[in-house]
Amino acid sequence: MGAIKVLTLVMVVGFLASSSTQADEGMWLLNAPPIQTLKDSYGFEPTPTWLEHVQKSAVRFNSGGSGSFVSADGLIITNHHVGQDDLQKLSNAKNNYVRDGFRAKTRAEEIHCVDLELNVLMSIEDVTARVNAAVKPKAKPPEAFAARRAIKAEIEKESLDKTGLRSNVVTLYQGAQYHLYRYKKYTDVRLVFAPEQQVAFFGGDPDNFEFPRYSLDFCLFRAYENGQPAKVDHHLKWSASGAAEDELVFAVGHPGSTSRLFTLAELTDARDRRIPKALEWLKAQEVSMLSYCARSTENARRGHDLLFSYQNARKAYDGELAGLLDPRVFERKRAEETRLKKLAADKKELSAARKAWDKIDAAQTLISQASPRYNLFERYADRSSTLMQVARSLYRSAAEKAKPSGQRLREYRDTNRASFELNLFSEEPIYDDLEQVRLESYLTSLAKEFGVDDVVVQKALSGKSPRDRAAELVAGTKIKAVAVRKQLYDADVAALDKAAGSDPLLGLVRDLDAAARAARKIIEEQSEVKEQAQAKISRVRYAVDGTRAYPDATFTLRLAFGTIKGYVENGVRVPPFTTIEGLYWRSTIHEGRAPFELPARWSARKNKVKLSTPMNLVSTCDIIGGNSGSPTINRAGEFVGIIFDGNIQSLVADFAYDDTQARAVSVDARVIIESLRNVYDAGELADELLGKK
Amino acid sequence: MGAIKVLTLVMVVGFLASSSTQADEGMWLLNAPPIQTLKDSYGFEPTPTWLEHVQKSAVRFNSGGSGSFVSADGLIITNHHVGQDDLQKLSNAKNNYVRDGFRAKTRAEEIHCVDLELNVLMSIEDVTARVNAAVKPKAKPPEAFAARRAIKAEIEKESLDKTGLRSNVVTLYQGAQYHLYRYKKYTDVRLVFAPEQQVAFFGGDPDNFEFPRYSLDFCLFRAYENGQPAKVDHHLKWSASGAAEDELVFAVGHPGSTSRLFTLAELTDARDRRIPKALEWLKAQEVSMLSYCARSTENARRGHDLLFSYQNARKAYDGELAGLLDPRVFERKRAEETRLKKLAADKKELSAARKAWDKIDAAQTLISQASPRYNLFERYADRSSTLMQVARSLYRSAAEKAKPSGQRLREYRDTNRASFELNLFSEEPIYDDLEQVRLESYLTSLAKEFGVDDVVVQKALSGKSPRDRAAELVAGTKIKAVAVRKQLYDADVAALDKAAGSDPLLGLVRDLDAAARAARKIIEEQSEVKEQAQAKISRVRYAVDGTRAYPDATFTLRLAFGTIKGYVENGVRVPPFTTIEGLYWRSTIHEGRAPFELPARWSARKNKVKLSTPMNLVSTCDIIGGNSGSPTINRAGEFVGIIFDGNIQSLVADFAYDDTQARAVSVDARVIIESLRNVYDAGELADELLGKK
Lengths: 693, 693
Known about the structure:
homodimer; 3 domains; eleven-stranded antiparallel β-sheet; 25 helices
């Protein structure tokens, strides 16, 4: 996954291949690591100190990815495609940092990112008992949902007030456990170095999710505190010698979302409705962005990040759908479900789970019915225009702030306020022409999905064609100005309703609001029903499989482990490492045509770089979207590489972890040092990484 | 319409803007030309000799486009994008004629096209009375459909036997008239000249349907008879001086399909169901082809023609949908329908039409319901894989040939046999990897649309994933070999059923056949219902609007007329001509990046060509997909240009002809001569075009 970055668009679907986990399977909690398995399989026992060190060296990019501290002066490494969002926001028609890369020659040249927030996990606390105690035993789903929402908000608020740390209650094991995660936040983050996008994403869409691979997918940021480089207590030491074939390695990062514990009904829904509908939407967006980008070089620059997101998500979903259309996947899931149902039927102590599958089935049906309206009026509305997202945030803030924090929509709670405001008041550039194309596409989607006679669609279009209406919305809104946003953010409901009367975009979000909230309510309540039923099924699984289980991914910190290992494809052995020489070779056989062209600097330096330097490597670590930027570390806790992708076979592994061919792909630590020194003349950064400063 | 070539995928939707035609509106029958209008508006009266000359100079490309004879030795000009299908079939990994162009230096070097058939219209005969007499007065739709099918086949067969000419009964005015069209056929057609695709389709997808424009979208073929260049009685004289602003011009060609006489119900269906569904399918195909093509230069070559078709159709449909989502379009249609309904209600002699709208509405509902199965099992099945199309043709031939010709599916009738066999036994290259990608995509579409539990889908997938099944189908079929096809084509139903037992692809088309035929039957019968009801409405229209009406396009020869005229866009005047200088300028401002790069030959010859030579021009001629390659001619019947596109505003004109901004775009005759002489060193072809030989 050229982006195993969590695309806000991607929700991955998966399941356990069998009743027990496979050799290197698992995205393990840092407070419940697979110590016994590591001892048994690899003779390695991570100490509490080792675990704390890797935990506090790991960094979460709230824009959707992972990273780690790699110097005592707050230097952070992540993927280029994780940092791309920030590179894009810092770029303009003159300086295109996405395409051309960036290098701060001194710390004074490091550039402050527009709206980037980083989180470092400081502690985990089990709050399951307190959450469950807040829900009355016979509570109906809406009450249970409200009660749980309120107690979570209360716990988060209490923790924030007490510690000053970002505090989030995380639902694990489908609701069988709730843990409180506390994060140290960094919001003064500066760009230090990025290579050219041509070499960071070498091979583009065709090579995305493929191996052998030749990508220099990394970039460097630095965390600042009080205007100075942050002095961090934990950072990963850099391994100058790198890792070798068959070596045990770990990936510490933030897998975004898996659904490996899905029931058959949910998996069927994903295959027959959810993924096909998502693909339909994604492909329409991709084609629209391709058209926009093809019109000029400047358009291509403006639309680049969006286009990449759509293409990446499309390729991931296409792969997932291909996996789900393999009948064997469903056979295994059916067998697993039969096994669990039989256990629930046979054992009295597990009887609470007997109705769980039917409940999930019924809830899934309601979710499926509400989904078109939820997607179009709620989810895609936010993702189809930066301006519309801002407008909605402003419009809803007034109403939400009037409620107690625990009763608000999640993103408007007090505990999320700082992150929310960072986004809302972002100075990221907004391009009228791009917004117009995106809004026209969104409005056309509304008309396609519900027909122009639908009451909400009629309000949205306001008697105009999507094209005319989009032009009117962009031309007429005042909220492009951050000052106007700040003013409206301080206003009350009446003032916002008044503003919606004159600002067409605020008017649009107002007109969509009731329908969007109604659909979201169904989705959230029925998800709660599913979660509670899933918790009962989870108990059946634990009763027989014991503690050899890990929860589905939730964009929280996890530890994965595996071996650096090649594989056999079509009868041919694919070795685990590629080299810089391979990069040049691949460009040559494609005659240097896009997306296989090399940046001028790389062509010019061919004689200066050591061609045998390892470039990318594969391991059996169990990773998924969100793991992008995760450090690959060795037993000594040293940095040996950085995860940036999974191969095409690992897309099937979203549903069934399997180490036959599925592999995580990393940039090797050694190519990073080699290129900093001999391609980019940035020896001072190489020195800092190697701790020579 | 970088392809106003009829894409088999595109069915355009349209309607009359008001009760009477606009100034230059109309796609007129050659046997009912708008003589009075031309006299009144332009003081020009085409003589029967003039009409016969342009009719017999015009050529239909059965692959989906138009062209014309331009020398006494059978030289034919059409668009590069019309000839592209043939260029692609003649190309291989070594010779890429699509990309690099082609030039036969002598007649001996002219290359025989794989499966191209050209038609020249020799005569038109009104057979309405005979067709109607064959239908019993109270016949139900299925009987009426069968009777009409039988009599048409009988008329065609009789004509073929008598004249030896290709004979087709054409339904005009939605069934108010039936005309017998007789064509002289040419099947020995050879490629003479094609420019590089970079200059023929300069600006690619971004410039497609745009103006100002700089495309050299032409190529040359030659018709042969008995192994010698055909000596033709009619060809267009070339105008060396070209045409001027405000000059009257004509476009003589084969507009593919319009639906300007649609009722409100049909137009609503097009907007809310048909076009959105078509776009969904097209965008999925486009993304799939883009992925395939991006993988290597050779893939890009193999997939080029398909990718172009999908992109072109997508852009056309997106434009049509944008037009239909303009509420004004529906307001006008509603007003027109109210007017006609009132006339039918008020006048006793028009009372037969009173129930027509309800009948169309009901039929449209049945068509909409059957469409998903019709599209997936019938239409897209043929368009999703060359091999599957061949397999179906073979499998169905056996069953169809056992019936009387008049009862067969249209494409299997005796009168179509020669064209059918030309396609079936085509030696066009078939690429296993491309076929596999396309089949996987098709099978995935089946599963997405109907679910894997659907009985037909289960048969199609045969217990495998789409990927595995596609691989099995391509690897296992024998029909790649033309010899095998010929053998099976001579076999009977029992033999085909036996072959379907061992050849997986024949097995697939067998398994789809019943469902495909059932859905097609509904579509055809209900279309007949609509046609008959439309004929009644047509009579109301004629009763009040007189003969100032032309039938919807049917890929038969039509005469359009208009003026060479610029327009105003966003307050800026767009002049009607561009020049070669503009081509260089546009490439320069895009830094020569794709799709704005120039072929090496054009860069090298910049100092040799006359930069002020007119390149493209716009006129108000009423054209649509299928008109690609139509000669643009002057009053003297001389060739002054060749239609290759319509601007973006003309997409709205698919529903409402309007000459405010909508324009047909032609390559100017002068740039053709200039480039043949001074870029391609093909002076002998320039001389032949100018009649100097």
